[in-house]
Amino acid sequence: MLKNIRFQTRISDFIKSGKLLAFVYNIRHAYPDPNDPHTFLETDYDDPETIDCFTKHLKNCGFPVLSLEATADVEEKLGEKKEDIGLVFNYSEAIIEGDRKKQITSVCEKLGISFTGPSDKTQVLARNKAKAKSEMKKHGISVLPDQVFSDSSEPLASNMRFPLIVKPIGQGSSAGITNKSVVENEKELRKQLIEVIGRFNDSAIVEPFITGREFSIALIGNPPQILPIIEPNLKSLPKGYVAIDSLEVKWLYEEEAQDHLMCPAILDPDLKAGIEKTARQVWDSLELKDLCRIDTRCDEDGNLYVLEVNSPPGLIPPEISTTSYLPLAARKAGIEYDNLLKTIVASALLRYS
Ligand SMILES: Nc1ncnc2c1ncn2[C@@H]1O[C@H](COP(=O)(O)OP(=O)(O)O)[C@@H](O)[C@H]1O
Ligand SMILES: [Mg+2]
């Protein structure tokens, strides 16, 4: 049972209504492997076991679940069942149609189906690191300067000084972010730009590389509750790892290393207040809804910058991973996985009622 009576009542009403909860996701076909760049394209997707387990939890909450992979025919499938669907639980990264990508949010808005998470406008912004940053900057939020490269031979802007970091513009889960992403000179920059642009068939975003503490902030509900802040311990990575939350760290090291994720992060009150204020500003400025996770990092002088917004954030069940950031932060706040799922669903349903 949820402690929040309003949430619990809304969930019970939904279940009584007999409507379906359509769970939409992307499936990956190979586990991310830093030595096999072909696997990078699906890093942001989920293993079939994760999706099965997630579905099991949703059913355990009492929801009649309709599971749908976000393949090209998902619009048709949602359209057919439109009248029976009460809510879409959006856990998908994108619908891939040949070379084009679109968000499930656009389909739901078109069909008039309610869904978890923010509007399509916000979702599209959040999926593009440069556009999201530019919107946040307009609202006075501190973000690092950046340069977007659609072609690897474009000249480097004069305000971009090495060391720099090269990232895919529209990926998540550290896809394309490896030990080689931090570049010290022109030669390394060009090599990495060719790799990232070619691999993901999309632009690369280049930013100054900053080396202070990193914080990830998970938020749920409307208005949002800020969950205990997570700090990946980048100071004590084994030799050979660059101090970033890279693919190597996230997919090879993190699960084994007991002390890599610190939650709640140990923060002095001013820093904690500053991080939370920033997180709320990001939430408001991008009009986020129901759930999200915000990644931030400090520079050497302790100034905090927002790196990106994760929407939808990873929600891997605890049986599969104990280091999935948002469920981990929720657990630290006393919210177990099923109650986390119910909180997200109830938050969305309450927005529409
Ligand atoms: N400008 C930067 N300076 C220092 N580290 C960075 C910077 N941008 C990203 N990182 C590191 O790379 C990781 C992944 O970058 P992020 O922008 O969060 O992409 P993803 O969507 O893959 O999580 C971050 O968690 C951080 O450790
Ligand atoms: Mg991130």
From TrEMBL:
<protein>
    <recommendedName>
        <fullName>ATP-grasp domain-containing protein</fullName>
    </recommendedName>
</protein>
<dbReference type="GO" id="GO:0005737">
    <property type="term" value="C:cytoplasm"/>
</dbReference>
<keyword id="KW-0573">Peptidoglycan synthesis</keyword>
<dbReference type="InterPro" id="IPR013815">
    <property type="entry name" value="ATP_grasp_subdomain_1"/>
</dbReference>
<keyword id="KW-0133">Cell shape</keyword>
<keyword id="KW-0547">Nucleotide-binding</keyword>
<dbReference type="InterPro" id="IPR000291">
    <property type="entry name" value="D-Ala_lig_Van_CS"/>
</dbReference>
<dbReference type="InterPro" id="IPR011761">
    <property type="entry name" value="ATP-grasp"/>
</dbReference>
<dbReference type="GO" id="GO:0046872">
    <property type="term" value="F:metal ion binding"/>
</dbReference>
<dbReference type="GO" id="GO:0008360">
    <property type="term" value="P:regulation of cell shape"/>
</dbReference>
<feature type="domain" description="ATP-grasp">
    <location>
        <begin position="133"/>
        <end position="346"/>
    </location>
</feature>
<dbReference type="GO" id="GO:0005524">
    <property type="term" value="F:ATP binding"/>
</dbReference>
<keyword id="KW-0436">Ligase</keyword>
<dbReference type="GO" id="GO:0008716">
    <property type="term" value="F:D-alanine-D-alanine ligase activity"/>
</dbReference>
<dbReference type="InterPro" id="IPR011095">
    <property type="entry name" value="Dala_Dala_lig_C"/>
</dbReference>
<dbReference type="Pfam" id="PF07478">
    <property type="entry name" value="Dala_Dala_lig_C"/>
</dbReference>
<keyword id="KW-0067">ATP-binding</keyword>
<comment type="similarity">
    <text>Belongs to the D-alanine--D-alanine ligase family.</text>
</comment>
<dbReference type="GO" id="GO:0009252">
    <property type="term" value="P:peptidoglycan biosynthetic process"/>
</dbReference>
<keyword id="KW-0963">Cytoplasm</keyword>
